[in-house]
Specification:
This protein is α+β, with helices and mostly antiparallel strands. Helices cover about 30% and strands about 25% of the residues. The chain has helices spanning about 10-25, 40-45, 65-75, 90-95, 105-115, 115-125, 140-150, 175-190, 250-265, 295-305, 305-315, 395-405, 420-425, 430, 445-450; strands at about 5, 25-35, 45-50, 75-80, 100, 155-165, 165-170, 195-200, 205-215, 220-235, 235-240, 270-280, 280-290, 330-340, 355, 365-370, 385-390, 410. The strands form four sheets. An eight-stranded antiparallel sheet has the order 13-12-9-10-11-14-17-16. Strands 3-2-1-4-5 form a five-stranded parallel sheet. Strand 2, helix 2 (about 40-45) and strand 3 (about 45-50) form a beta-alpha-beta unit. It is globular, with a radius of gyration of 22 Å. The relative contact order is 0.11. The protein binds ligand MV4.
Length: about 475
């Protein structure tokens, strides 16, 4: 087992990794930027090293500085969390060359899934159902026309180097195809210096359902069920739940076994997420994420399995501590992402948190990296933390969520959070019924414009100590 692990991340996920390491008896090294001197994860790690200025490229993603930090502290492995270097195949190669273990998949698997064309080709070879479309990339307008004519409109043109909602062009009719194709190529070249694109049938009202998988270095791979992540705004997930309201045990087992077998066949190691669009009872692969995800706790809540602990164990060469048969899905979990964001610019609120009170009680989990008195730096994503509730069934989880949203207090001058949005969502009958798709939040007024939560307007203000 590793004696010491370095965490190349910040915020709530750095804290999450510290907690898993502590339970395994592994010492932790936090690396941080000058903007995060006072962050909770820096205080709670066993050691900390400042690796650079606020800009992530010069600190959290500064590979030479991370290698030096490993050298100075004797850390044997790096957990990259999510974002930053977590899906950087070149980083994985460099760690290999330096004899440092990446707590993550093989470099080649990160590389294959990073290119959305090779990801889809690989998925199809592994018998994972994919969206109808081009076999690989489409280089010319004539080829695009042939593929689109065969499957019919609307179609979507996606950049191979894209993902997560960037570099996509929807083409509704044949008349728009030529301009759509040219624009897609031009944008892909400008955004990614890679103009490779591919074409798919455009699904108009799918749900976004993803399957959690885990593999080890002994040829074992399992699935841990699905998460429904359809509730998104501007390609940012807002609420996630497990199980999906539209997936039953039989469907879960079918798609889950397809994914687990695919991971066994490719020899995948570590945690991964296979993303699907789900429409009219069918799954269509879109992408695979080769990292732990923000919303992993809802899977932990319904399976009782510590995914980060398991990531560390399999990276150290241990077999998965459970088999597929051991995994029992219990109850229902919902996660709300608590963001601090300016309602007009959607950039992080630069304020200081004065009042911070988290809900508690049975079935309640708050994964957060902040505290009363903490000054939110403006340089990073706006996630303050996650409220995760678990209940015996969906109605109980919803009731618990409603109760928790009333208890949660986050305030301070200039601080705006997404908490009021969730309260509004709890009033929506379609959400309560589980009746939503990826377009749902577009029609909810509170989500098209973030509401303000200000100190002097908040009747729940708790003065800081
Ligand atoms: C699609 C699609 C419809 N049809 N592909 C957006 C993010 C990227 N991972 C894939 N995305 C989509 N791909 C086909 N063939 C619709 C989306 C999409 C979406 C997907 C998941 C969650 C939210 C979304 C919001 C808008 C569009």
């Amino acid at each position: 087992m590793f004696r010491k692990v370095l965490i190349a991340n910040r915020g709530e996920i750095a804290l999450r990794v510290i907690r898993a390491c502590r339970e395994l008896g592994i010492a932790t090294v936090a690396v941080h930027s000058t903007a995060d001197n006072d962050a909770m994860f820096v205080r709670l790690a066993d050691e900390s090293i400042c690796v650079g200025p606020p800009a992530a490229k010069e600190s959290y993603m500064n590979i030479p500085a991370l290698l030096t930090a490993c050298d100075i502290t004797g850390a044997e492995a790096i957990h990259p969390g999510y974002g930053f270097l977590s899906e950087n195949a070149a980083f994985a190669d460099i760690l290999d060359e330096h004899g440092i273990t990446l707590i993550g998949p093989k470099a080649d698997h990160i590389r294959i899934m990073g290119d959305k064309i090779s990801a889809k080709v690989t998925a199809r070879k592994l018998n994972i159902p994919t969206v109808p479309g081009s076999e690989g990339g489409v280089d010319t307008f004539e080829d695009a026309q042939k593929v689109a004519d065969e499957m019919g409109y609307p179609v979507i043109i996606k950049a191979a180097a894209g993902g997560g909602g960037r570099g996509m062009h929807v083409v509704l009719t044949e008349a728009e195809l030529e301009s759509g194709f040219k624009n897609a190529k031009r944008d892909a070249a400008a955004l990614y210096s890679d103009d490779s694109v591919y074409i798919e049938k455009y699904l108009t009202s799918p749900r976004h359902i993803e399957i959690q998988v885990m593999g080890d270095k002994h040829g074992n791979a399992v699935h841990l069920g699905e998460r429904d992540c359809s509730l998104q705004r501007r390609h940012q997930k807002v609420v996630e739940e497990a199980p999906s309201p539209v997936i039953n045990a039989q469907i879960r087992q079918e798609i889950g076994e397809i994914c687990a077998k695919a991971m066994r066949d490719m020899g995948y190691v570590g945690a991964g997420t296979i993303e699907f669009l789900y429409e009219a009872g069918k799954f269509y692969f879109i992408e695979m994420n080769t990292r732990i995800q923000v919303e992993h706790p809802i899977t932990e809540e319904v399976t009782g399995i510590d995914l980060v602990r398991e990531q560390i164990l399999v990276a150290a060469g241990y077999p998965l501590s459970f088999t597929q048969e051991d995994i029992k899905f219990t109850g229902h979990a919902i996660e709300c992402r608590i963001n601090a964001e300016n309602p007009k610019t959607f950039v992080p609120s630069p304020g200081t948190i004065e009042g911070f009170h988290t809900p508690g009680g049975l079935g309640v989990r708050v994964d957060s990296g902040v505290y009363a008195g903490y000054k939110i730096p403006p340089y990073y994503d706006s996630l303050l933390g996650k409220l995760i509730v678990h209940g015996r069934d969906r109605p109980e989880a919803l009731m618990r969520l409603s109760r928790c949203l009333r208890e949660f207090v986050i305030n301070g001058k200039g601080i705006h959070t997404t908490l009021p949005l969730f309260k509004a969502l709890m009033e929506n009958q379609d959400f309560l019924d589980g009746n939503y798709d990826i377009e749902f939040l577009k029609d909810i007024p509170e989500f098209s414009q973030t509401m303000l939560l200000q100190v002097d307007e908040d009747e729940q203000f708790h003065p800081s100590p």
